[in-house]
Amino acid sequence: MNADLLSLFLHFLMLSLLCVGGAITTAPEMHRFIVGQAHWLSDTQFTSSIALAQAAPGPNVLFVAVLGWNIAGLNGALAAMAGIMLPSTTVVMMATRWARTNRESIGVRAFTAGMAPLTVGLFLATGWLLAEPYVSAPEHRLTSLALIAATLALTMKTRISLVWIVLAGGLLGGLGWV
Where residue 5 falls among pLDDT bands split at 50, 70, 90? Predict the structure, then answer.
């Protein structure tokens, strides 16, 4: 596989500025670029990379390193992580410092309130991207939709930690029930 590391770095650099709610919220655009445009990974490899990284302990952003690794080894992991971390970290540090001193300003309060629906929308797009292969497969459709509905209901109506919901989903999958 001949991955253009500069292209990978620059694309993730741009995505870094869209990572409202975390890097996972840009997974649909990562998928479009890595799978659809550059053809560096297949759909299955992309989804498996995210699943592997999310199952491992550590920061949520590690899936970016796994994607980079699967594209171009250690150099790919470094290019992807540098691209995703440098701009967002710099902007967050500067904005946090500024917002802390101006926290009572109407602009800061409006910005904070406006980011909530954007973050929810990005999470929903990512969830759909990861669920779509299963929802579109006739043999998994009903089970997948039922699990999505159950997860949504449990998340919205109870205080059960998402860790337990994910663990239950993994257990059901491991037992072959889904």
Answer: very high
How many structural domains does the chain have? 1
Does the residue 153 lie in any domain?
no
Contacts of 107 (CB under 8 A, 6+ apart): none
pLDDT of residue 143: 86
| pLDDT score of 68 more than 70 | yes
Task: Give the residue numbers spanning the domain of 20.
Answer: 5-115
Tell whether 48 is covered by a domain. yes
Domain membership of residue 54 (yes or no) is yes
The Cα 80–Cα 87 span in angstroms is 12
If 0-12 CB within 10 Å is exposed, 13-18 middle and 19+ buried, where does residue 103 land? exposed
Query: Would you say residue 161 lies in a domain?
Result: no
pLDDT of residue 2: 63
